[in-house]
Write a structure and sequence with these properties.
The protein has helices at 16-27, 44-47, 68-73, 83-96, 186-198, 222-230, 232-239, 260-273, 289-306, 310-316, 333-336, 383-386, 398-401, 435-455, 465-481, 511-521, and strands at 6-12, 32-35, 103-104, 109-115, 120-125, 130-138, 160-163, 178-182, 201-206, 212-214, 328-330, 342-346, 352-356, 359-362, 365-368, 371-374, 389-391, 420-422, 461-463, 527-529. The chain has 530 residues and is an alpha/beta fold. It binds flavin-adenine dinucleotide (FAD) and 3-acetylpyridine adenine dinucleotide.
Length: 530
């Protein structure tokens, strides 16, 4: 790249968020540089190359909609696209919009400091270079900071270890190997069935069982693709008025007001259709524990039907609330435990004592393995930003400002950090939605704000503390109406030891988009512009 050091905007991250931000800010005439730690674009889909990695929102919805020609010309092959196909799509977008010339790969941002006098940001990268920009956009991802558990002896292991979110490009050969997978979230549940097919023996270490529904993935037919494309714009617009920003066929009825036979029929139909729309079976599922228990009993019944050994079936049954942790979407997950080469270690009963050169010791028993796969998730929503030394006005550190949990205005900005924007930050709906439209919504809001600043001769926008406090209170109030805060999920930071427990996403599309629009129309209410 050229040696230019001064830009209008610096974007951190070249996933879906960073790429669209670059395109959009460029269209305003801004000079933009994107810094990306990886050696390719794609973010999530660049890093998560584990076997079975796919989207769990249907491909024709889990894609950009900002450009009609793009969505007409790209054809997805399957209902849920694989990681390689999604990565091909992202690369296509990077080429199609000539984005690469402003993306600096293999460049990790280590700090971003606001200069109170210049009213600009100084951004430093790992190689010690410094750059200046008026605006900084953190497109660093909600699920981009791998969480490797501190298990005693981890470094002493004699075989190979992998984290699903840092998977090697050349893949991993499991043939003839004894493999351990630690973790049974979405990444574990997607990869376990495929690793089991290849490995000599697979031992799954499960700390908390998770609810999973079948994907029923399949190729898309030409007819359904062309039918959707013929109304793509209208379809996308209709999705914007839904809670998850996706075609979940929401049922307005409550589970508890529905007679048991009809309730079962609804669950059966959703199970047969597959995927996350299971959560839209009834309107009260995430708001009433008794309603949710009807869904939990249904899934327990399915686990009993699929898993032959009743003892193993019981271990696989989650106790908690369906959807309280992100519902998993699988292909043959529960059936994998019928295979003779798969065993399940429930960490509840046999806690992991340590890792030794030969394998994992749990409950005093050594499980000798050649490979350990950590499907242990991410320091979600705040992890990537916390790893950067971010300092706002008067040198105030973001880590300190967030020491009791992240506080933001609209999940877009933080008070005291002028012109620093986040894509799908904590306090926005982000991970509780189809993230592609949520990303596009944020990018477009930020671009509108930057355009407004240019037009009105403003150099900085800074969220007021009062607006931020009111927003944080509102996010908590709404979260508390639901069952989400009731379980140990990464939504709350519960998966990372020592992380403050705060329900981080905002539950509330489409009201959220209306609020953001009202803020902008009201002359950026809740912001001080100077
Ligand atoms: P990311 O794609 O995470 O990109 C962030 C980028 O920032 C990364 O490339 C990272 O290297 C870079 N970065 C971070 N810190 C720095 C730094 N300091 N310096 C330089 N670069 C940095 N969402 C859905 O809605 N539907 C799905 O089906 C779905 N499936 C998923 C499957 C997996 C396996 C995972 C992990 C997540 C999935 N998600 C899904 C969520 C997914 O993260 C988002 O949909 C989306 O891809 C996020 O895009 P992004 O650009 O915001 O962040
Ligand atoms: O991570 P997770 P993930 N010892 O945090 C366990 C998206 N995604 O990578 O539940 C032992 O969900 C942990 O146990 P517990 C999606 O949004 C989507 O799977 O904390 N175990 C859990 O079982 C998803 O929600 C797809 O008790 C430990 C697992 O590791 C998000 O990314 C695919 C442990 C981590 O599960 C994260 O998913 C993949 C320890 N010390 C990801 N620490 C799709 O399907 C953690 N665990 C589209």
């Amino acid at each position: 790249m050229d040696s230019k050091r001064i830009f209008d905007a610096i974007v951190v991250g070249a996933g879906f968020g960073g790429l669209y931000t670059l395109h959009k800010l460029r269209s305003l005439g801004l000079e933009v540089r994107v810094f990306e730690a990886g050696d390719g674009v794609g973010g999530t889909w660049f890093w998560n190359r584990y076997p079975g990695a796919r989207c769990d929102i249907e491909s024709m919805e889990y894609s950009y909609q900002f450009d009609e020609a793009l969505q007409q010309e790209w054809t997805w092959s399957e209902k849920y696209a694989t990681q390689p196909e999604i990565l091909r799509y992202i690369n296509h977008v990077a080429d199609r919009f000539d984005l690469r010339r402003d993306i600096q790969l293999e460049t990790r941002v280590t700090s971003a400091h606001f200069d109170d006098e210049q009213k600009k940001w100084q951004v430093t990268t790992e190689d010690g270079a410094s750059y200046i920009a008026r605006h900084v956009v953190m497109a660093t991802g909600c699920l981009s900071s791998a969480n490797l558990p501190e298990i005693e002896g981890r470094e002493s292991f004699g075989g190979a270890t992998y984290h699903t979110g840092l998977w090697p490009k050349d893949g991993v050969d499991f043939q003839g190997k004894r493999v351990a997978v630690i973790g049974t979230g979405s990444s574990g549940i997607q990869s376990i069935p495929l690793i089991a097919q290849e490995a000599d023996h697979l031992t799954v270490f499960q700390r908390t069982p998770n609810f999973s529904v079948p994907a029923h993935n399949r190729p898309l037919t030409e007819t359904e693709v062309s039918e959707r494309k013929s109304v793509y714009k209208e379809f996308r617009k209709a999705m914007r008025d839904t809670a998850f920003h996706a075609n979940f066929r929401y049922n307005e009825a409550n589970a508890l007001d529905t007679p048991p036979e009809l309730r079962e029929q609804e669950y059966e139909a959703r199970w047969a259709a597959g995927g996350l729309p299971f959560m839209a079976s009834f309107a009260d599922l995430m708001f009433d524990a008794q309603a949710n228990a009807t869904a939990a009993r249904f899934v327990h019944g399915k686990i009993d039907d699929i898993v032959e050994d009743p003892n193993i079936a019981d271990k696989l049954k989650p106790n908690g609330v369906v959807g309280c942790k992100r519902l998993c979407v699988d292909t043959n997950y529960y059936a994998t435990f019928n295979r003779p080469n798969v065993s399940l270690v429930s960490i509840d009963e046999q806690p992991i004592d340590r890792i030794e050169p030969a394998g994992i010791v749990a409950g005093g028993e050594l499980h000798a393995v050649d490979i350990i796969v950590f499907a242990t998730g991410f320091d979600a929503m705040t992890g990537a930003m916390s790893r950067i030394d971010i300092r706002g006005t008067e040198g105030k550190s973001l880590s300190e400002a967030w020491s009791e949990g992240p506080k933001t205005y609209l999940g877009l900005c933080v008070s005291g950090f002028p012109n620093l924007f986040m894509i799908t930050g904590p306090g926005s709906p982000s991970v509780l939605t189809n993230m592609l439209p949520s990303i596009e919504h944020h990018v477009e809001w930020i671009a509108d704000c930057v355009r407004w600043m240019k037009q009105s001769g403003k150099h900085t926008v800074n969220a007021t503390l009062a607006a931020q406090n009111a927003w944080v209170e509102h996010v908590n109030e709404i979260g508390d109406l639901s069952l989400y805060p009731r379980c140990n999920s990464w939504y709350l930071g519960a998966n990372v030891p020592g992380k403050p427990r705060v329900f981080m996403p905002y539950l509330g599309f489409p009201a959220y988009a209306e609020k953001c629009e009202a803020v902008a129309k009201g002359g950026y209410e809740g912001f001080e512009a100077a």
